[in-house]
Amino acid sequence: MAEAIQVEKLSLTIEQKNSDQLTGHLGKNYDLPDKEWWSGVDTAFHNLQTLLEYHPNEVPDEENNPESISAQAARADALPLVSLLPSGSHALRLTATNEDLQCVAFGTISAELYIDIFWEAVSKVQDEGGKFVVYKIESGAFWFNFGGRNFQLLYVRCEDLVRSCPRILNVSDETLQESDSHTQKIVEGIKRDTKKQASFSTRDQKVSYYYFRALNIARGRYTPNHSLTSSRTLNFQELIKTMDLKQPLDLKVLQDAEAESVHSQLDMPFYIQVIVHLLPVQMIY
Q: Which domains does the chain have, with CATH numbers?
């Protein structure tokens, strides 16, 4: 067993040596991202939106005559329209560096045509000397590396929804109810996760999540590899639900047998236990 650090309380403020020790350990062993990594994500995703989004540029001018307005509207309706949004842990900004950055493209065109558009974007980047590596395309889902980051993109065709509200997140509940149940579930999930991002806006809240994630990986109850999930493991949304988002992180050093048993699995240089931040975990069988 590693020797516990003799401090009364571990603070996650930047000034604390123990905080740096904790975040350093999580970064090295459990893929906690830093600001530089997220900055690269933001740049890559912005460039990806530039490549894979389509929005009509023509906007009817009220000063034009009715016939001209009608013609412009007809041309706009004939153009493809695609909006790309972050989803899941990406929307919450809780993706680990060894996990795919999830996103969803909502469009008016068929999945087959969007695959053609996707490959055109890949060729454009590669012809210009950039890196765009495609790992797999299957059933409207794309796995690839772009801008040095791994992405998982899902394409969803929902023409009426995208035409009525191209930015998707601003869609009303009434309009969303007109979509099929699959699209409704995806949009509702993205809206929920985007709002929930505020619950992880501080450094303390983010580190508490990655700490809890590491603990569940060590216990065999969470894996970032979706092919290894089972009825006994938590997925990302289930992991979030086991956390109490209303309480601040409060970490204390413990030296009892239970703390040593749990945290030896993490190979932590000290033993800590989340006192008030985490709700009791219900085992899944």
A: 17-33+199-274 (no CATH), 35-198 (3.30.460)
